[in-house]
Design brief:
The chain is mainly alpha-helical. It has helices at about 1-20, 25-55, 60-65, 70, 75-90, 120-130, 135-150, 155-180, 185-210, 230-240, 250-255, 260-265, 275-290, 300-315; strands at about 240-245, 295. The chain is globular and about 65 Å long.
């Protein structure tokens, strides 16, 4: 894992240094930004995600430091720890509570969401919207979240200031400094940055959608007094799915995020242990009568996800 982290970080830094070396024109600049866009989520999957869960290393100070790699790329580690670690991992697939399925009206990701006429086409346009995941976080949802929480008195002005500084640092690193150093038209840089975020956003969205917006998983809701039918662990089994767990290369590059069941049950365990843990979890699920959702291959998982999008868009989702 350490070697993988070193190689990914080194490749990222190398691409950036070559980018600002003023060596290339438009095709080369776009290619370097795209390379950064590919490496960015790989670092997120393999290093940052574990670090923000406190599972990359036993040294929590180092975990917090590594977590700032999220902010370097423009997204907020502070917000992620709340919306992902707390909300998503506690209220998985619960409409109105899980921030991962409570999206804009353009996507219907749960049976409780209002069904609008254009949702019937969402299986076709969703992959395009996925490309804008990172840009949305960077430019819209993160700043709006901070603004809303500050106004409500839920976070301090100090935290908001740190967020602003980190956001400015990221934009300066990938837009401002290249604009200053490169003797190329300004729009080369903007097109390159856009390419970087579109590629990275698509990769991030797709991997996380395959875990919960997929066939056989459920979207449980609380009863009239706010109680859930199942305990937390059973709830995670019902709402989460693995995919392509026998594909070692995919598991390697996704940082074990294809073992989503194990990750949700043991979020504070490093991803390198998931393959071994999965055997125990699967056996226990069979023994106690709980489902163990999994898609055999990456391709089958994508097809299953698109079928669910189609069914949700046509009001035909059965779970």
């Amino acid at each position: 894992m350490l070697l993988k982290s070193f190689l990914l970080l080194s490749a990222y830094v190398l691409c950036y240094l070559v980018l600002i070396s003023n060596t290339f024109q438009l095709p080369g600049i776009i290619l370097l930004y795209v390379c950064l866009g590919v490496i960015k989520p790989l670092i997120g999957f393999n290093l940052t995600h574990d670090a923000l869960h406190g599972s990359y290393t036993k040294n929590q100070k180092l975990n917090r430091f590594l977590g700032y790699s999220f902010d370097v790329n423009g997204t907020s580690s502070y917000i992620w720890k709340i919306t992902h670690n707390v909300l998503h991992h506690t209220y998985t697939n619960i409409p109105g509570h899980d921030s991962d399925i409570d999206k804009a009206i353009w996507l219907r990701l749960s049976p409780k969401d209002p069904l609008l006429w254009f949702h019937r086409y969402q299986a076709y346009y969703a992959p395009i919207l996925y490309c804008f995941t990172s840009l949305n976080w960077i430019l819209f949802s993160d700043p709006l979240w901070i603004y809303r929480e500050v106004r409500a008195g839920k976070i301090s002005h100090k935290d908001a200031a740190i967020f602003t500084v980190l956001k400015a640092f990221s934009l300066g690193l990938f837009i401002g400094l290249p604009l200053y150093l490169l003797s190329t038209p300004w729009w080369y840089i903007l097109v390159g940055y856009l390419s970087m975020q579109l590629v990275g956003g698509f990769m991030i969205a797709l991997v996380f959608q395959l875990a919960h917006i997929i066939e056989n998983v459920e979207f449980p809701e609380p009863n009239a007094v706010g109680e859930m039918e199942n305990n937390w662990a059973a709830h995670e089994m019902l709402t989460t799915s693995n995919f392509a767990t026998h594909n070692r290369w995919l598991s390697y590059f996704l940082g074990g995020l294809n073992f989503q069941i194990e990750h949700h049950l043991f979020p504070y365990v490093c991803h390198v242990h998931y393959p071994r843990i999965s055997k125990i979890v699967k056996k226990a699920a069979q023994e106690f009568g709980y489902p163990y959702h999994e898609q055999p291959t990456f391709r089958q998982a994508i097809r299953s996800h698109l079928r669910v999008l189609n069914n949700l868009g046509n009001g035909e989702f059965k779970k």
